[in-house]
Amino acid sequence: MNFRKAANSLGLLFVGLVLVSPAVLFFLWMASLSLKFEVDNAAYPPILIPERFAWKNYTGVFESNRFGLFFLNSLIVTGAATGLALLIGVPAGYGIARMKATKAAVVVLIARMTPGLSYLIPLFLLFQWLGLMGTLVPQIIAHLVITVPIVIWIMIGYFETTPLELEEAAVIDGANRWHVFRYIALPIAKPGITVAFILAVIFSWNNFVFGIVLAGRETRTLPVAVYNMLSFEQLSWGPLAASALIVTLPVLVLTIVAQRQIVAGLTAGAVKGG
Q: Which of 44, 52, 119, 134 has its CA 20 to 30 A from that of 218?
């Protein structure tokens, strides 16, 4: 019996290493590129750990590519899109869960699964007609297409697992539906709200498609700024890898810190709400 448990554990460990190792390898190689001079990056055979680290790749990113402005744009877009998504999605998830609105939950699921690219052309034409192109407003509204379905779907799962006894007792004591939601349902669902917040931040921060089409020269977000570093005339792998790591770092840290909550939220959202 102990041998079988050990074999199962080793098997799971092996599968995990096989699945994770490519991502880890690519991340380490990108980190290596960001710390090397261009001569080392072009060397053959490849050099993983250089003799001298090119820290100027990181300092150069902030000095020459206006990363401070783009970082601020990403904070504004992600913060606004996440805040509005929570404001809309948490009450919507509660209402769908309590009313057992299966059809509405299916619509949310379809919206969650539909690629954001499907909404791009109508949104582009709408914002162009409104004269908002090149500002941060179109990006915030477009990011709601991603963040709102995520928040609603996760909150449906959490509210369906919360006990109804406390809410029923509050109704008997004379509380209206708003008081029940505000003082009973929300405190119980704080873990779910945390998960929804984290996932909304991750998906909004990493979004590239809306930014490349809807942003102007002064309103680019970080993923678009990294893309604009590519050039047909010259491609500097060191600064490009450094900028990519800078963009990835906030989300990576957030994911590592909150990995347990993320897994719990995805599991609840996957099996509930339908």
A: 119
pTM > 0.90: no
pLDDT in tens, 211-260: 888 887 788 888 887 777 665 445 677 777 777 788 888 888 887 777 77
CATH superfamily assigned to domain 64-271? MetI-like (1.10.3720.10)
Sketch the domain layout of the chain as residue ranges.
23-54, 64-271
| Model confidence pLDDT, tens digit, residues 254-264 | 877 777 766 66
